[in-house]
Amino acid sequence: MLKGIHVSLLIGPAVPIPVSQEVLDALTNVQVISSTDDKMNGFELTFVLSTRSPLHTIFLLSAGSPIPLIRVVIAVVINGTTEVLIDGVMTQHEIKPGTDAAHTTLIVKGKDLTAVMDYLEFNIPYPAMPAEARVALMLAKYLPFGVIPLVIPSILIDVPIPVERIPNQRGTDLNYIRWLAKRVGYVFYMEPGPAVGTSLAYWGPEIKVGVPQPALNINLDAHTNVESMSFTFDTEQRTLPIIYIQNKETKAIIPIPVLDITPLNPPLGLIPPIPMQTKPVRGMAKYSPVEALLIGVAKAAKSSDAVKGTGSLDVLRYGRALRARKLVGVRGAGLAFDGLHYVTSVTHQIKRGEYKQNFTLSRNGLISTLPEVPV
Asked: Which of 102, 107, 196, 307 could cross-link with 363 by S-S, CB 3.0 to 4.6 Å?
């Protein structure tokens, strides 16, 4: 691997352990995708093996289990600091014959630990339990996998009275937790680390504040640390969600436009795009006015990010691994696009002698709200 960068690979049933040197020698490519899109988080490992290697049997048997719990942890050590890229499970194997009879390519694919939460379906009642307590109780089942729950109570804590209604989970833990999150405008995801073998299960509002990562520099001569970066400004992306609330006394329908600005989602751009169209939020009649407003705010925040950025970087030059779901500064892209952006996805691509990343950024307006960004 590169000087100053070392890759650690741990594989095992339930509790992963460091792989042997034979496995590391066969490993030729590592790809990890981390994204705000729940369906994209996963990994891909590529091995070049001898056709008679016992590793074929080990990997293929692990995929034959009815409930595949072969965990895979991928971590990198960059300049002495360990960063866990993903903690997940194997889900798919693919064999590709090589150019000669002695070698073949084995591709192992997998997802993060949310995949474990999607294996079994349950039918469980939760009497007199608010959504926050139900989420915490479901996540407690995954403590043996090193899952640490972080549940943020919503501003509307609804404790159902058992004689009136009893909440009931029908389906997998993952689907039910995401449904509960969507109901109050929250998100749910797994964040690997900080220690190897642990993951943070976050259920709460999407946070776009905090300490930004080192700036991405373009067109700054010796200070340039990205290979490419481009931006687009899509005015048609911006819509104005409208929720409809019914007055209980008069039965009148009241339309309420929803803004996307909240303390946890502050404006990162001075000039936001003007909404080109309104979009009614369907299915709000069954929710209380506060619940409907929270859902509307979450939808408004997603549609407001009209500024999109894409690019690639060399981790060795950048000095660390860029992480998704965090802020990052941009310098040298021009007045309209310089400033803080939110990292929506990162793809890690690791080969022998090479560690690169492709990334996407988003922002809710042009021109930075800050006079300068941290270097």
From this structure: 307
Question: Are the C-beta atoms of residues 68 and 115 closer than 8 Å to each other?
Answer: no
pLDDT interval class at 66 (50, 70, 90):
very low
**DSSP label at residue 265:** B
Residue 374 domain-assigned?
Answer: no
Q: How far apart are CA 299 and CA 284, in angstroms?
A: 13
DSSP code string of 11-57: EEESS-EEPPHHHHHHEEEEEEEEESSTTS-EEEEEEEEETT-THHH
Gap between the Cα atoms of 315 and 334, Å rounded: 23
Q: Which residue from 11, 95, 110, 109 is spatially nearest to 48, judged by alpha carbons?
A: 95
Residues 24 and 9: beta-carbon distance below 8 Å: yes
Q: Which of 202, 77, 200, 73 is closest to 146 using CA atoms?
A: 200
H or E element at residue 144? none
In the chain, pLDDT over 90 holds for what percent of residues?
43
Q: Which of 283, 303, 323 is the last residue of a domain?
A: 303
The neighbour count for residue 244, using CB atoms within 10 Å, is: 14
Domain around 254: 235-303
Which tokens sit at 64? 């034959």
SS3 204: strand
- Whole-angstrom Cα distance, residue 96 to residue 79? 35
Domain boundary (113, 138, 157) is at 113
> Do 177 and 286 belong together in one domain?
no
Q: Return d(Cα 259, Cα 300) in angstroms, integer.
A: 6
Q: What are the residues whose beta carbons fall under 8 Å from the beta carbon of 334, sequence distance 6 or more?
A: none
Q: What share of the chain is helix, strand, coil (3-state, %, to 5)?
A: 20, 45, 40
Amino acid of residue 231: F
Here the tokens at position 181 are: 């999150």
Residues 317 and 219 in one domain: yes
The predicted-structure confidence for 225-245, as pLDDT tens digits, reads as follows 999 999 998 877 677 777 777
DSSP 317: H
Give, in order, the Cα–Cα distances in Å from 72 to each of 145, 294, 374. 11, 36, 35
Residues 219 and 358 in one domain: yes
* pLDDT tens digits, one per residue of 41-62: 999 999 887 766 666 666 655 5
